[in-house]
Amino acid sequence: MILEQIPVLDGGALPGTVLTEVTELYASNREFFALSGDFPDPEHITEEQVAAALAEELARPTAEVLLARSEGRLVGLAITLGQHPNPEDPDPWIGLLLVDAKLHRGGVGRELARLIEDRFRTAGREAVRLAILESNDQAGWFWTNLGYELIGYAEDLERQRPCVLMRKELNAPSA
C-alpha cells in the first residue's frame, strides 16, 4: 500500500477521475455516514458533496487528505491535521480514516493507520490523537486494538456530537 496526497488542481478542484474514485469510496461506507450525519442522504452521496467536504477539510491549515492505493486501486483515504485548532494541543490528529467497505476486516485500515503513524513519527511527533463518535462502537474497537487509549470525552467542534477522545504514543511498541 502506498500513500499519496490528494491531487488538487488550480482553484482547489480535484481531477475528475480522482473525485469519482473518492466518491465511490465514500458511498461504499453508507453505514458510517448514516451514523455520522455528514451527508443528508448516505444512500446517495454525490461527487459535488464529496468535493465540498474535501474542500472544507483542505481549507484548514496543516490538513492533508491522503489516498491509500494498493495495486493502483484506491482502497482508503485519511484526513489528518498536523496541528489541532486548540493551540494547547501538541499532537497531530487523524480526522478521518475511511476504507473501501468491501475491504473491511481485511487489514487495510490497520495498514493505513500504521502508515499515518509512521509519517507522524518520522516528522518527530510524539503521539497522535483522534475523536470517534460515542455511538460508533466498531471504531472504538478498531482504534483500541491498534493501541489507542481513551483520554476523555468531548463534543466535536463542528456538529457538537458526543465523541470519545483517544491518543496513542508513537514511540510505544506498535499494537
From TrEMBL:
Domain spans labelled N-acetyltransferase: 17-171
Alphabetized Pfam families for the sequence: Acetyltransf_1 (PF00583)
Gene3D superfamilies linked to this entry: 3.40.630.30
Protein name: GNAT family N-acetyltransferase
Entry keywords, A to Z: Acyltransferase, Transferase
Family matches, as PROSITE patterns: GNAT
Membrane-crossing segments per the record: none
